[in-house]
Amino acid sequence: ESEMDRAGVEVTHGRAVLEGPNTVAIHRPDGTTDRVRTEFTLVSTGSRPARPDWIDFDHPHLVDADGLLALERMPRSITIVGGGVIGSEYACIFAELGIPTTLVEPRNGLMRFLDEEIRERLESAMVETGIDLRLGRKPAAVKGGDGHAVVELDGGERIESDIVLWSLGRQGNAANLGLECVDVVPNDRGLISVDAEYRTNCPNVFAAGDVIGFPALASTSIEQGRVAACRMFDIDDDRALAETVPMGIYTIPAVGHVGVTLEEAGEKGLDVVVGRGDFRRNARGRMLGDDRGLLKLVVDRQSERVIGCSVIGEDATELVHLAQFAISTGQRLGWFEQACFNYPSLTSLFRDAADDARVALIQANARTAA
User: Fold this and answer.
1) Beta-carbon contacts of residue 330 (< 8 Å; ≥ 6 apart)
2) 118 closest CA partner among 11, 285, 10, 263
3) Residue 18 within a domain
4) In terms of CB atoms within 10 Å, which of 12, 115, 120, 190 comes out highest?
5) What is the domain-level CATH number for residue 96?
6) Percentage of the chain lying above the pLDDT 70 cut
7) Are 39 and 183 in a shared domain?
């Protein structure tokens, strides 16, 4: 709160409820209520783990992501249901600690929004770490027993472990906010719909962060809130940057992404080529012992503009920021080809990927000419 004070922000503790487009009631812990008149309101109430009513979360061996942090000891073994960002990150942490870890994901791959090649490398790395990865398997039942927990999969298989972490989905914290007073209706997952400026259907009410859904990462949520504030006060400098916010996923190995993936480019009908930079062929990558990392550029074939980048490996969540700059400023492939990077450095992977993309462009153009 000291940073808020320094910025001149008044902090009030209590539960806020909208009473109209320009009125917020603040119910204080002491029972009093203040009403604040405001030109704009930003809803940034976050989310919580989704809790199916058929799971007994009061059982000490059945937890969600919040309950996991309240455990008084490390699990002897753990089964995680849900291979999203949170479930995958926790699976990597526990496996690295030497705890027997099983990860159950109903879909056929983890985090389907990732580049397919990157995702496959992540899944392979997780298996090598010792994670028992069960893809395409749906939980039919989750039960607590005497000193253990059990996940029953479709098909009848039972997985017994010390702790079961339920990590399938999150619920937006949109209840009891008075949104009905401004005609804002969250969906069944408690998520609020917004436009590209993070404005709800009520022009005075904006929303940002987990409460509006994907990607629900700290970095993107901060950027969404900043852009919303800029829109409120007619500051237009940030529109392009808001379209190129990166994602950082802190699995082991980590994953970074910005822009479009190869699969998304295909769905949009874009004519693209890709360039790859393998960590095992990079001097710094070899020094770090990373022989499975990959940096992948997606390049528009006609304009040669870089439109996407995905990275898996050491410092992936840092490396992706250079691609973010290139995309947001409209840099072409030649910008990376002409750059001089420190040697040895992981940043030079961009040069490797650019050179590889150049070869792909030449080959694609030759096929077209033929």
Assistant:
1) 305
2) 263
3) yes
4) 115
5) 3.50.50.60
6) 98
7) yes
